[in-house]
Amino acid sequence: MPTIFETSSFLILAAIIDILVAAHILLNKNDQPVSATLWLFIVFSFPLFGVVLYLFLGINRIKTLGLKVALANEKVTAEQKNRAHTVINSIFNETKQFVAKEYKNSTDSLEYNRAIDNLLPQTFPLTGNRVELLRDGTAAYPKMLAAIKEAQHNIHLQSFIINNDAIGTEILDALTEKAKQGIKVKVLYDKFGSTHAVASHFFRKYKTSKIDNFQMHSFSIANVFAPWRVQLRNHRKALVIDGKIAFVGGINISSENDINTCNKEKYIHDLHCKLEGPAVIPLQLDFLRDWFYATKTKLSTLLQAEYFPGPKQIGDATVRIISSGPGQQEAATEKVFLAAIATAKEYLLIMTPYFMPDQPIMKALSTASARGVDIRIILPKRNNHWYVQFASRSLYPFLLQNNIRVFEKHGVFSHTKAMVADDNWGQMGSSNWDVRSLRLNYELDFIVEDEGFIFDLKQQFLNELTESEEILLEQVQNKKLARQLVENFCALFTPVL
């Protein structure tokens, strides 16, 4: 049995550690009072377990890692402007002709675009694009593989999840085959999102293949000595081919998105897009920025003319690319959402798998509804994270009391992230309506103004509504006490979910 001295020493040491951790919380979360209060409660209520939990989930290193990413971005921008890169400069000068001079749909569209122009001045609405809506991986993967097969110069793939399964193998095998043909291939994955593939050593055979033109790297290397790194995740999903064609949206590289290779019970419904035109250029640059940060590659080898072919008009769609994350247009996702809510006049349709926004967004939604905007939110009835679903449902009373309609989609898990407003524009990408996407993750979204695409996306919403059950206020008011307690308890962890 431990002596009184040993017990006292342990308690004193535990108290010192708790105080030090509490000081860290107060110094680093002073702008997030709800999160700070939650972590102080956890640390002092569960002395050692709470400290361990904070190390893994509470420390996000936004300021330090964000600064590193920002410095990497500044180097890319400085190199981009360097006179030595006259070819790159000429390409960006060519792109300027596609920046929308006016917003064609309506005064409502004008108001929204002006808001984004002011909030995110580094982004530009580029005309001359063609955007095709792809429903599920079953439709997206064959087109992605066909485009990979036709690649002539370079292929850049970025995905939060690359799974060790049939689809992951098929796509990586296709990429290595192209590399053998002389095509330059770069693959960037998130180590947390691709945990299964990393743990099973799936990537090892590709990384050690010794194919000159094939490179594969994780965005941010997590390890047991820096557990907080798992909090900052690169959640982007994009495939860019020859700087001319891109596939971007919410679909990861996984058999779970393909009905032909997946058990129906595990199938994930999602949306993606095929994009051609000038808007591919900022997607290419976003990938190269991330690659530069992750690999520390010499900029002179990245900013090459072959990655940026001259932009050409392919269609009539106006597209604005939005990249968001610490050190890269911080809180850009939240600004996009708030601008949409503030400028919507008639309706706002929202689909997201995870709905746990912060208070500013909740208040903005209630204000828009009070103005008469018809707001409808579609969430999955069956979520892949039960605690997230409970936390989301704790918000239903507020939403319904403010005349914001909530629907839960039946069937397979829906991972779809999209928004349509007033028949004027649509937004898609990797961002969820939760604190992680708003503050922690590196996200990639895009805004589209195109009559045909908006019609397709709105029709997708209407189809999803027919497969959904509307949640009524009386249902949530009559909820059992035990259920309310569980939901509200899970909601406490919203800042870290």
Description:
46% of the residues lie in helices and 19% in strands. The protein has helices at 4-28, 33-45, 47-58, 62-81, 86-95, 107-119, 136-150, 166-180, 195-199, 204-207, 280-295, 299-302, 332-343, 359-370, 386-393, 396-401, 435-440, 451-466, 473-477, 481-491, and strands spanning 126-135, 154-159, 184-189, 214-218, 238-241, 245-249, 268-269, 271-276, 317-324, 347-351, 355-356, 374-380, 405-409, 413-414, 418-421, 425-429, 433-434, 443-449, 468-471. The longest helix is centred in the first third of the chain and has 25 residues, at 4-28. Helix 1 runs antiparallel to helix 2 (33-45), helix 6 (107-119) runs antiparallel to helix 13 (332-343) and helix 7 runs parallel beside helix 8. It has 497 residues and is an alpha/beta fold. The strands form three sheets. Strands 4-3-2-5-6-8-1-9-18-16-15-10-12-13-19 form a 15-stranded mixed β-sheet, with helices on both faces. Strands 7-14 form a two-stranded parallel sheet. Strand 15 and strand 16 form a beta hairpin.
